[in-house]
Design brief:
Elements lengths: L2 E9 L4 E13 L2 E13 L2 E12 L10 E14 L7 E15 L6 E11 L3 E11 L1
Antiparallel strand pairs: 1-2, 1-8, 2-3, 3-4, 4-5, 5-6, 6-7, 7-8
């Protein structure tokens, strides 16, 4: 089943609060791809957005409605600074993302909580959650 939804997170490395959207698309049994877009609100004329593409694995746990997942992928982080007056500065970096979390499958709307670690020039840890809707 294809899932789509909004999410929010708090990230380290001065990125603070972020909001975003994600899409989950199954490719084989217990494996899906998870592209996400996030926009962070660090303030001080700094703008940060990210694109992340991960592959998630859902282990076969011997329990009712298991929701544990783990994944890895690539993350692109774009940062720009718009000081007062003319001109701006921007930069982009690519890093490895590692994700783990739990989706609560017992309800009709599927909430989740997760931790994502980004390793690269824009190192950070993201603590987040959101909801999934079935398409």
């Amino acid at each position: 089943k294809i899932l789509v939804g909004p999410h929010a997170e708090f990230a380290t490395n001065d990125l603070d609060f972020g909001i975003g959207a994600h899409l989950s698309y199954p490719i084989v049994n217990r494996i899906d791809i998870l592209p996400t877009f996030d926009y962070y609100l660090p303030g001080n004329s700094v703008h940060v957005w990210t694109l992340d593409g991960s592959v998630r694995y859902w282990p076969n746990l011997n329990m009712k409605n298991p929701g544990l997942y783990a994944g890895a992928g690539l993350n692109y982080t774009h940062t720009s600074f718009n000081p007062p007056g003319p001109g701006s500065v921007s930069d982009g970096s690519v890093g490895l993302s590692l994700t783990g979390g739990w989706m609560f499958k017992q309800v009709s709307v599927l909430p989740f909580g997760q931790i994502r670690v980004v390793i690269g020039d824009a190192d950070r840890v993201e603590f987040g959650g959101g909801i999934n809707f079935k398409l």
